């Protein structure tokens, strides 16, 4: 698709045909099975000050936590017990776990469970990424958030646009399956910028693409901004499915939080992954990137049942394999 075609599709009111085509491409290239990635939000400590995020270091109203590596191991064990074939370990950036402790944890999980591990811990050095990969992590998620250098500078005032993209290159070089993505509906973001984001996501030839609506958080400098919409986010998802064919694309928590039924709609227009929360319930209320986040009061088992029902009601199945990249052998 050309930039103009993408801009046109992002601007149309009636997207049923686009969604139908994305669903057809999804079925053809990744099938009906939905991959479940158990999400462990292991620390809300963050050294960055992103203007959109509730975990930003200047937010003094957050009770910070760091799960011990034993607690993270136990949460992984719970995910394994629920039958999940892959895990996502997510945290704030620079949340100060010594790299050797993280590597020991990864070796322990991989030693005892047959489970794929995805990390989402922000920017690190090339050496740290290499150590995490060697210790057994399979995949890494690092969204570039927006391809507009100017907007990026406003949203992530203490990060560097070039370094974020450098990290994506390093992650690939050290052997990770790589995921990236954007937020949709950011203040100051135009459809032209989103079209550029989509073209860059296509060019990066990613194994995984994570997108979600921006949701204004009252605890941040963007408290008065207008949130993104599910409709525009789903159009971005559908276009990405059609363009990238077999990337793994989740129906994200933000899609389910901004509108009831958001994840179900995403699964019907291109998504093939869900991320049930397996964070111990006592920590969940402290990991609020944005308001009205779903599953805050639920137990891991509740989310498992909920997700199984959702998949079944859509006539889809739960994948029985780890859901590794489909791009590896291309
Ligand atoms: N700290 C790491 C990082 O920033 O890459 C990983 C965790 S961070 C919480 C994961 C993602 O949350 C970010 O990439 C961002 O897209 C999303 N996020 C943060 N605040 C958000 C908000 N207010 N609305 C929607 N998504 C948000
Ligand atoms: Fe920290 Fe990530 Fe939130 Fe930015 S988006 S404040 S790096 S947790
Ligand atoms: Fe957590 Fe529905 S996924 S309760």
**H-E string:** HHEHEHEHEHHEHEHEHHEHHE
Task: Kindly name the structural category.
Answer: alpha/beta
Shape: globular
Radius of gyration: 18 Å
Architecture overview:
This protein is of the alpha/beta class and 330 residues long. The protein has a single domain, classed as Aldolase class I (TIM Barrel, Alpha-Beta Barrel), CATH 3.20.20.70. The chain is 42% helix and 14% strand. It has 13 helices and nine strands. The protein has helices at residues 3-11, 16-30, 69-81, 99-112, 126-134, 149-155, 161-173, 191-203, 230-244, 253-258, 262-267, 281-284, 300-313; strands at 33-43, 86-91, 116-120, 139-141, 177-184, 208-213, 250-251, 273-274, 317-318. Helix 2 packs across helix 9 and helix 8 runs parallel beside helix 9. FE2/S2 (inorganic) cluster (FES) is lined by residues 276-277, 294-295, 298, 302-303, 306-307.
Task: Summarize, please.
By secondary structure, the protein is of the alpha/beta class. The chain has helices at residues 3-11, 16-30, 69-81, 99-112, 126-134, 149-155, 161-173, 191-203, 230-244, 253-258, 262-267, 281-284, 300-313, and strands at 33-43, 86-91, 116-120, 139-141, 177-184, 208-213, 250-251, 273-274, 317-318.
